[in-house]
Fold these 4 entries.
Entry 1:
Amino acid sequence: MSRIGRTLFAAALIGLVGLVPHARALAGLPIDPSTLNPPPPSFESCQTDGSTIICRGSVAPAAYGPSDNQIFCGTGATAFDTFDSGVESQSAVGYYDQARNLVRQVVHFDNDGQWSNALSGAAAPYTQHNIITDVLAVPGDFTSRAEAVTGNIVFTLPHEGTLLVDTGRFTIAPDGSIDFASARHDIFSYFEGDTSALQKLCAALS
């Protein structure tokens, strides 16, 4: 390295060292959520972490449903709609840049629920554990997000075993199309036209 190069490197290093105490001084300062784009959910609190703003929070387990999940079993006179209910909890963390625009968020979902047939009263329980990660190509603009979903949804009944599995990883492009999927995704197969993917579950609910 030339003398000029060493001098520039040393000057840059001194500049970086000078910034460290300033970054440490800012770390942990609370941030008004309304100044962020987009504002985080109301259950999150925000603070600085060096040059990044991080918002974290969680929602206590809460009951929901029954709600129509737009999944139908059977055809003709024997067809029936299915409904979802259960207890859900979630935690989330969002990362904002220096301009206070969201660049990434990660949400953890945990459900203990059931799908039911309102006509017969039959129900099938399930557990769900999913992690949803959104990365925004344009900071602050959710329409530019690429989404990755990992985890599993599993329906089981005593003496009948596993009825439905949706597990692995899939990614969703900004236009809403699925551009990658691994492992087994029975629910997505249903919405893509393969009704046989829910055959065992529908039989149990009928």
Entry 2:
Amino acid sequence: MKLAIAGVRVEVASTDPSLVLAVPRAAHDFLDASSEAPDLALLARWRDLTEEDRGPAVFDSGGVWQSYEREGSRRVRFVSAAAGPVPYKVASLDLARRSGEVWLHRPCYPAEGPIDVLEHPLDELLYNQLLADRSGLLLHACGVGDGDVFIAHSGGGKSTLAQLFDRHAPHVRVLSDERIAVRRHGDRWTMYGTPWSGEAGFAANGEAPLRRLVFLEHGPADRLESLSGAALAARLFACSFPPFDDPARAAATLALAAELAVSVPAFRFTFAPRAAALVALGYPC
């Protein structure tokens, strides 16, 4: 199984017939049948993780995953209350060699049925790091195929705006209502849909030249205002997903956000949830 998101390819394979790989429904649109070599090749296999040797801790997300250094590679350990103290999954990564392994603790998985090896948050963690190496970043944003990226934290209006496009401007393709990838190719910026959807469930494989960055805010009236200045880069970084467990790649993400802030027109859009908001953005309904 090979996925291509924002032009970055991750391949997962297994040599064990008892480990059948699942493809989540949201990822079907991102399956890659090309002969292009993967940017990261992962081998998935069962492994007893009862006595798993972690190595020095690097980062603790405060949630299900922690990052460690071990034998020259980065390991990401996944635990849950349901599985107890034993990790249900460990990813051992060597991004420099474009390879890695994902170890699954057999007692934590059903006896039969396919397994989603890249189950969230591993998929997003991998792409955060891979994009950082390729002049890219993930944004907390809704995006449409015309090249507009609408940025906001949770509750800021991303899914609301996506639903407005779906109802009142169906000719405009919504690529995601939760995560949009952005990459710089020379002096060009491109935005990409991702399989990570929000409440409205929009996730499509598509790309477009990046036209505008629009920061969303709820309000009683529709108003589009230009943004600029040093604070803009900080706003972008605050709505991005840098690999916090890797200081060098986090710094690269911050630098890229600063470049993006001075390269693409940015706006603040205050809007009410009605069709007129799309007209205020320049979209005919």
Entry 3:
Amino acid sequence: MPIYTKTGDDGTTGLYGGKRVLKSNTQVEAYGAVDEATSSLGPILAQSIEKTDREVLTAIQKNFYGVMSFLCGAPTTTIDRLNEATIELEKIIDAKEKKLVPLKRFILPQGTSTSSFCHVARSTVRRSERRLVECIGASQLDTKGLEEVLAYINRLSDYLFVLGRWYNRKNGDILT
């Protein structure tokens, strides 16, 4: 089976159930931004990172596939698990922050390669959050499950911020 279908050559794409919409549709923008966010985790995973961080990031990528399914209208059980996943992210954030110098100023998104990739991923996740909110504003999504998705994505950006600080500190930059 070829990878190309040619069905999108006219600037449209298919949602779950067969409905065709423009590729600029806010719903497509929302799940496309989540696709970008999950891909932005790849460069972090390509680094030498702790096993637990690798497991967390891989779980996030899997959750994001469920979120993309949800956003294109397909049935998924991922949304039912997002509250638990959000709480887990909070626990990880809290544990890492206890070992970091408390922030007293804004920090620049720089440092080690791993930290820099975390900051790029964080900003990509934030963009996916904005696209999702835009889609909600355009009333293109069923609101059931959206609170869980928004909370998860918001917490994920916090996790990536802390993870960036974590890998800078681990590699000698204690000010971040």
Entry 4:
Amino acid sequence: MKTNTQTLASPAGLLAAVEFAARKHRDQRRKDVEGTPYIAHPVRVASLVAGVAGIEDLAALQAALLHDTVEDTGTNPEEIERLFGPEVRALVQEVTDDKSLPKEERKRRQIEHAAELSPKARLVKLADKIANVAELTTTAPVGWPVERKLAYVDWAEAVVARIRGSNAALEELFNKVALEKRALFG
């Protein structure tokens, strides 16, 4: 499935986003026992957008790779815009949480604002939720009890419920992954 905007004619723009995200996340690790390099997460999100959703839109793929840079690395939106353009900046900002707010408020706002996301931002959000739920058994934070993992699945389902109708393939995969985790943890 191609979107009606710029498609990936050359890998240069995509590779620039990979390099930028890798540099920005270079000192970050997942909170799992192995300390998995964080960059694996945004690469997985972009892979889901491209491979499962079939999206070839350069801005959507770049935003998937960069979706956590503003929120987690101190990157400013202006830097994203300068390097990747206003559309990528806008998409990244749509899926960026305000880290100055308490965690529960950020989670509430994600549910509340999910329905307002643009179509491309919805793809990134769906892929992010798939990756995070799937990773609850491979790169889950050390010390998370089953109840917390199930609460995360509940919350992810509430976010995804607000953006249903965005991409059937991603939604089907999310349903499968969430069901598998419920069966495993329940």
